[in-house]
Specification:
alpha+beta, Carbonic Anhydrase II, 3-stranded mixed beta sheet, 7 helices, 16 strands, 27% helix, 22% strand, globular, zinc, lipoprotein, transmembrane, cell membrane, membrane
């Protein structure tokens, strides 16, 4: 067998071929790596775009949140406005046994709440809102100063089901009324919200009753004309007084420091939540669910979930009731002792 010896030139050529082959392999590997990186980049961009489409920049209620309706649900409201992630947010669950009595929480005084007005009622895409065009005030109840009524709106569930924003011992009522006030020295709500206690909201629960509440006829009737977002209509003569319980039934309430319950979630609200609910029939409660969000779906579940207290204290009124009960007890004991004394 004869060995074949390579000349130096042949060996050099073999060496060059090996180098060329290695370079080609490395180029192929590099191209493959770059291709994979591009694929990952494209996929990341696509996913980011998809998530943006599914969340969106606008805010919405949980009942609206689908990929077909681009919006940020309540758990992502801080994406729409960072203040919604604050530590003094509303609404809350009020646990009665954990509230503290405060004798400064005396009965409220209402000025010109009894005056009738003909305002505009509007479907703003999130709720029903009515501006208060005249001078109506609330004072007392340990408020710093008289507060002027600006507007009122409502929050509800679905067809009369649970829908209030605040809850009492975990119980959610069918609907909740918010009458928004600002300190009388402020010229508009925007300025009032810059004041740490510039806004006072009175919150009232609703409960289902067997009969219709005729005082709500003007509002219930007007809802039929504002089913779609952005529509508004004239409201027949109505007063704030007729929408809430009689004044003698407004002595029991809760007080805490909180925020607006929709974005911008500004933490400038002195909250008062009354115990006594307003009666409405099931048909009256259901008519609110016939309104529509901007996408044409039924406007239901228009409430924000309760927020953490984060160390806040909730106070309750009733000091006068306690004192009256104590006085009654003393009088009863005195009467019994008097009757038990010998003649």
């Amino acid at each position: 067998m004869i060995d074949k010896y390579k000349t130096p030139l042949e060996e050099e050529c073999d060496h060059i071929e090996k180098i060329t082959y290695c370079v080609a392999l490395r180029r192929s590997s590099l191209a493959e790596t770059l291709s994979k990186m591009q694929q990952h980049l494209i996929l990341s961009i696509f996913l980011a775009s998809f998530l943006k489409i599914c969340t969106g920049a606008d805010w919405c209620y949980q009942s609206q949140h689908t990929c077909a309706t681009p919006c940020n649900g309540p758990e992502k409201w801080d994406h729409a406005n960072i203040a919604c992630g604050g530590r003094v947010q509303s609404p809350i669950n009020i646990v009665h046994r954990k509230t503290l009595p405060d004798e400064r929480l005396t009965p409220f005084q209402f000025k010109q709440y009894q005056d009738s007005f003909e305002g505009l009622i509007k479907n703003n895409g999130h709720s029903v809102q009515v501006s208060v065009p005249h001078e109506a005030y609330v004072f007392g109840g340990d408020l710093e100063t008289p507060y002027k009524a600006v507007q009122f709106h409502l929050h509800w569930g679905k067809n009369g089901g649970p829908g209030s924003e605040h809850t009492i011992d975990g119980e959610q009522y069918p609907m909740e009324l918010h009458i928004v006030h600002m300190k009388q020295q402020h010229s508009n709500l925007g300025d009032a919200l810059k004041d740490p206690s510039g806004v006072a909201v009175l919150g009232f629960f609703y409960e289902e009753s067997l009969s219709a509440n005729r005082k709500y006829d003007p509002i219930v009737k007007a809802l039929q004309s504002i089913s779609t977002t952005g529509t508004q209509t004239s409201l027949s003569a109505v007063s704030l007084e007729q929408l809430i319980p009689p004044q003698q039934n407004l002595t029991n309430y809760y007080r805490y420091k909180g925020s607006l319950t929709t974005p911008n979630c500004t933490e400038s609200v002195v909250w008062t939540v009354f115990e006594k609910p307003i009666p409405l029939s099931r048909d009256q409660l259901r008519v609110f669910s016939d309104l529509q969000f901007k996408d044409g779906k039924n406007m239901v579940g228009t409430f924000r979930p309760v927020q953490p207290l984060n160390g806040r204290v909730v106070y309750r009124s009733g000091g006068a009731v306690v004192l009256a009960s104590a006085a009654l007890l003393v009088a009863s004991v005195a009467t019994v002792m008097g009757l038990s004394q010998p003649n």
